[in-house]
Amino acid sequence: MEAGCGVGAQTVTLAQNSPEAQIISIDISEASINEARQRVESKGYSNVHFQQENIFDLPFEPESFDHVFVCFVLEHLLNPSEALSILKKYIRTDGTITVIEGDHGSTYFYPDSEAAHRAIECQVELQKKSGGNSLIGRELYPLLIQAGFKKVSVSPRMVYIDSSKPELVEGFTKKTFTAMIEGVGASAVNAGIIDQASFDKGIADLYRTTEPDGVFCYTFFKAVAEK
Amino acid sequence: MEAGCGVGAQTVTLAQNSPEAQIISIDISEASINEARQRVESKGYSNVHFQQENIFDLPFEPESFDHVFVCFVLEHLLNPSEALSILKKYIRTDGTITVIEGDHGSTYFYPDSEAAHRAIECQVELQKKSGGNSLIGRELYPLLIQAGFKKVSVSPRMVYIDSSKPELVEGFTKKTFTAMIEGVGASAVNAGIIDQASFDKGIADLYRTTEPDGVFCYTFFKAVAEK
Lengths: 227, 227
Description:
The structure is a homodimer of 227-residue chains. Chain A has 227 residues and is an alpha/beta fold. In chain A, 40% of the residues lie in helices and 28% in strands. The first copy, chain A, has eight helices and seven strands, in the order βαβαββαβααβαααβ. The first copy, chain A, has a four-stranded mixed β-sheet with strand order 4-5-7-6. In chain A, helix 2 links the parallel strand 2 and strand 3 (48-52). In chain A, helix 6 runs antiparallel to helix 8 (196-208). Chain A is globular, with a radius of gyration of 19 Å. The first copy, chain A, starts with a strand and ends with a strand.
């Protein structure tokens, strides 16, 4: 089971890398499920079944899955440990779980900039206000232990980017991370977390890290564990 | 050449891993050189020659080294890029350099703590006052490019520690990192950077990350480059 497949960005990779697996991908949003289904079918994969479901109210039989995959989902939940406990019910004895999350507090760069850190902090605060946690990557070990999983093994996946890696400068620093922070600007200013000029300075400083002498670091965390 | 060998902590590893190499290890401190020599001789290695020298005033012939190794040295220098330029002179054509540095700004942990970050910041500020840079790890790429090196390749070496790794909790989080931060407390309070109670709270919060649900992250950076 892929719990919280969203628009299927990871589903395509799962279907491709595990052609022998029968995958059930769920998401709470019907629109996302439809987009994910279209994406996976357009790639020609037929081993994924999509269902609109809520992680906290699943219709499956207990112990009916060999593996559960959860990627970029816990960060949005008020009660991530409870979600893991519930998912655990549906994993067979000795079955496994994979959890992947980012951690915005793992972001640092050269040239360093207080303004850029403050702009990132806006995203962290907004996520917190909406019940989520942008710093959850570092917490995967205690969350999985708390949910009763065994053999919890967490490995960081650090993204280190300097100008010798132009495709990552474009694809990650600019178009993924900075674009995502830039996207919360209006909400952050409206919420009174920051003023527009300070936010703009932070964004400019994030773009500054994409110049030839710039460096950008971010870390994702991957956890695997056994029921 | 090992430039800035200190008391020989890395020299032992170099001598062991490269038994065929003739190593010249230099340091500006005679006391350190003597300690390093004793350490290496006590392990039975005979392929290291020690000399008390200043990186900025070396007596060697240009291009006389195949490789230069610099570990935890640049962080102490006011002019790290100039030091790299000077060392480059002594490397033969197509010879190589290895540079390893930490970066205190790469430190984050669970539970998160503003007080702990402020205690770490004391070390960063004191290092800065004495002309050094505790955030230099992330800067290795631009520093080596600026010094004229080619084929610069930087790889982060992230230390991720949770309670499934008790030897790292003890050996790194407690006895290396937190002990090092704890060691600057008196200087930081004397310099008026922080008050004693706030510093103590920060240290207590760093120790808090070594409890069973705690997590600690730190990243070293290793760069290799060609003349």
